[in-house]
Amino acid sequence: MKLSDKKAALSELARLYPDARPALHYGSAYELLVAVILSAQCTDERVNLVTEKLFAEHSTPASMCLLSQEELEKYIFSCGLYKSKAEHILSASRDILDRFGGEIPKTVEELKSLAGVGQKTANVVYSVAFGGDAIAVDTHVFRVSNRLGLAKGKTPAEVEKGLHRAVPKKDWSKAHHWLIYHGRRVCHSRKPDCANCTLSPFCDFFAENARKK
Fold first, then answer.
1. Residues 6+ apart with CB under 8 A from 124
2. Is 193 one of the catalytic residues?
3. What is the dihedral of CA 171, 179, 28, 98, to 10 degrees?
4. Is 203 annotated in some ligand binding site?
5. Is 79 annotated as a binding residue?
6. Which Gene Ontology molecular function entries are recorded, alphabetically (predicted)?
7. Beta strands in the chain (DSSP E)
8. Reduced to 3 states, what is the DSSP secondary structure of residue 205?
9. Which tens digits make up the pLDDT trace of 141-182?
10. Catalytic-role residue among 6, 85, 120, 174
């Protein structure tokens, strides 16, 4: 994808999704952290159903740590991977209490130091909860970035670096949501709706398929 096409694609994404925002429901940085951990390989809709009950009773690290892992697993069972997610949530909650005085750390590196928190989760919390400049690469961002040619890579880390080069820093957090929305609404995993995609004039995937035909 040429530089001019990258700029055009970003402009079109901004036009298409001016109100793009997180789909997860949360009332604090801690609740967002827990919701993002739960969202791995799970829909945001399912996570919101689970956290509605969980956060009504356990919305702080101190309250969460009152639960045993088995008790927490019962709350989050329907999110999938519930054993590892429960372990990560409780470990991160203890870290927040023991190392950060009960307050969610506000930098990516400190967030990544929490047990069970990786780059994607740290980037989401940093950008959404604290207004930092970051691009979290989930499955939608990874797929759409590679297909468009906006940022190509075999790993999320490679795509993140490519997006840092392609997207102005002031737009990093917004671009994260633009790409997620486009992945959910148009550029589906199994069958992208290329015929109705206004990004097709700038898209490497569309151009490659057109050449094959």
1. 22, 32, 36, 134, 136, 176
2. no
3. -90
4. yes
5. no
6. 4 iron, 4 sulfur cluster binding; class I DNA-(apurinic or apyrimidinic site) endonuclease activity; DNA binding; DNA N-glycosylase activity; metal ion binding
7. none
8. helix
9. 999 999 999 999 999 999 999 999 999 999 999 999 999 999
10. 120
